[in-house]
């Protein structure tokens, strides 16, 4: 599956055509952005793998608080800035709900670790 097929699957044919960029400079910027996004996802996955093996409960709580803040910030970013992009606005509710759900998963981890700490 190439990049265009993934974009069409996620956004639809019309939006995917608009997101490709009209000039070669736009296309290069979009490809660079997607490459950095992939690199960032890899780095986050690697970081989560490393944190999973840390036995220090206080560090894991600190990490979970940071992840919660990150997901809430991402949801706020989507509401305030991505809604201005009419091509991506129809995906906005689904993405915001996903960000809030991920933040809640970290909150549940914090509640679980708090329960273990005080039992």
UniProtKB/TrEMBL annotation:
Keyword Plastid carried by entry: no
InterPro entries cross-referenced by the UniProt entry: DUF7865
Pfam families according to UniProt: DUF7865
UniProt keyword terms in alphabetical order: Membrane, Transmembrane, Transmembrane helix
Domain DUF7865: 3-107
Transmembrane segments: 36-54, 61-80, 92-114
Stored PANTHER family: TRANSMEMBRANE PROTEIN
Protein name as it appears in the record: TRANSMEMBRANE PROTEIN
């Amino acid at each position: 599956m190439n990049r265009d097929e993934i974009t069409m699957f996620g956004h639809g044919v019309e939006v995917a055509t608009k997101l490709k960029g009209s000039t070669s400079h736009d296309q290069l910027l979009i490809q660079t952005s997607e490459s950095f996004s992939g690199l960032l996802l890899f780095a986050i996955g690697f970081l989560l793998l490393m944190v999973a093996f840390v036995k220090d409960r206080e560090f894991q709580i600190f990490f979970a608080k940071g992840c919660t803040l990150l997901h809430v910030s991402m949801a706020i970013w989507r509401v305030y800035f991505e809604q201005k992009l009419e091509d991506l606005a129809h995906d906005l509710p689904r993405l915001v709900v996903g960000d809030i759900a991920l933040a809640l998963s970290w909150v549940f981890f914090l509640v679980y670790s708090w329960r273990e700490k005080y039992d």
